[in-house]
Amino acid sequence: MHAEIAGAGFAGLTAAIALRQRGWTVRVHETNPELRAFGAGIFIWDNGLRVLQAVGAYDGVVNGAFAAPGYRTQRDGTCLSDEKVNAGGRYRLLTMTRQHLYGALLAAARRVDIELVTSSTAIGAAAEGVLHMADGRRLEADLVVGADGVRSAVRDSLGLTDARRKYLDGIIRVLVPRGPLKGGVWDEVIDFWAFTPRTLRILYTPCGEDELYMAMMAPVEDQAASSIPVNVDVWASCFPDLRPALEAIGGSGRYDVYETTTLSRWSSGRVAIVGDAAHAMPPTLAQGAGCAMMNALSLAVALEGVPRQGFGEALMAWEARERPLTDHTQASAAHLAKTRELANGMPWNDDCFRAARHIPTGTVAGAHF
Ligand code: FAD
Ligand code: 5PR
């Protein structure tokens, strides 16, 4: 069996490895001239870690990622929740730079002989198993995977998009040196909210020995706080302890808005859509990549032992089995984004953590967890 995959992000690489592990030949097309991740840091919960283990990327991820001892929410200086995570806690949560996660997945992909082509852009697909490329090529495959992100060309060419939504809140994400912010509470993930003197939020996330990821949320109407370069005095007026980190930002940073996508169906004939292309969600539960990797692995599992002519049906069974959890996670994340409920503390309940607690298809319960 042969697969052509559009997009070498977290979803595309995971699908590629999982298919290759099951005997497929796989080619992945990445539109960028380089194989690399964009953006600052990322959270990976238990479910994502299990998938990384199943595709052989776990050791590479653990080595160099950060295991915070706790996850705290603080509002106007008052601690509202402080949950132990990792050792002694109920959940495992590794934080890392996006480039670190990407590097570990890429190394795992290279170990299993996957063809990775850069500067190769998909423009669409056909249900009978064809990936159409920008250079005019028509690539036939037993399976085509659209893992080409929130603006997926593969998805749009098949008319699968049901709804897309952009949110009003946006966020500046930066990576800076930790500097003096180390030890004790500074080793925890801290969700700092301030409502006085103005409404701002910084999700403070150590990502390694010396890397700090900050997700800085400002209402769109607060132009002084949402502009780039970051206005250190404005942000330090709410978070004086973070001044050294704020000063280290310099001219870097980017303001991004949240987007969601839902599809009428995750597949059409021999074409499957995975990751943000299928189910982009607000980052409030930190499960976008987690769900992307789960669905990429379960896609490969769903086709195991299935004869070529049975793929259409197998892909519908895959969606029926896997989609309810993703839909639930996306809806919960959207609710949290809309209500700003996280300002009252992280809801450490089974409803919000259903995805984190899930044993993904294709992974082994127990293992290192
Ligand atoms: P992408 O990462 O977008 O990868 C798609 C790839 O396809 C890219 O390499 C792109 O260049 C390529 N491509 C695009 N178009 C084409 C084309 N036409 N042809 C070929 N290649 C193409 N998730 C978490 O799990 N934890 C977090 O902590 C977390 N934090 C987040 C914070 C923010 C602010 C945001 C916005 C998201 C966050 N997410 C998080 C979500 C996570 O980033 C995404 O869900 C994840 O990156 C999706 O992976 P993907 O491979 O589907 O898409
Ligand atoms: N969690 C994470 C995150 O990056 C953000 C949020 C929650 C890991 C924002 O970037 O609530 O917006 C959030």
Polypeptide structure, described:
- The structure is a single chain.
- The protein has 12 helices and 19 strands.
- Helix 1 (10-21) runs parallel beside helix 4 (98-111) and helix 2 packs across helix 10.
- It is globular.
- The mean pLDDT is 95.
- It has helices at residues 10-21, 46-54, 58-62, 98-111, 153-157, 223-226, 232-238, 243-247, 276-279, 288-302, 311-339, 354-357, and strands at residues 2-6, 25-29, 41-45, 66-67, 70-75, 78-84, 93-97, 115-117, 122-126, 130-133, 138-140, 143-146, 161-177, 189-194, 200-206, 211-218, 255-263, 267-268, 271-273.
- It binds flavin-adenine dinucleotide (FAD) and ligand 5PR.
- Flavin-adenine dinucleotide binds at residues 6-12, 29-32, 42-43, 121-122, 147-149, 153, 171, 173, 256, 275-277, 283, 286-290, 292.
